[in-house]
């Protein structure tokens, strides 16, 4: 039963449900216990970090678009940088 509970908490967290909602669902007194049950998947964490950076950059008026050069097989960062990176 414990493994099922852990899997359910992890699935909810990775689906974007807040830690507070999961805490209530599991009946924990504090989020510290819930965080032990629900480790965040690396892909989800990376996606959240990228989204936060995009929000920050929109607020600050910065563009970091990445373009792909099929001739050179490399990526170019937008937003004023002109050097191709390999």
From TrEMBL:
Organism (species): Streptosporangium amethystogenes subsp. fukuiense
All copies of domain Tyr recombinase, residue ranges: 1-54
Organism superkingdom: Bacteria
Lipid biosynthesis listed as a keyword: no
Keyword list, A-Z: DNA recombination
The keyword Manganese appears for this protein: no
Matches recorded under Gene3D superfamilies: Intergrase catalytic core
Protein name: Tyrosine-type recombinase/integrase
A Pfam family matched in the record: Phage_integrase
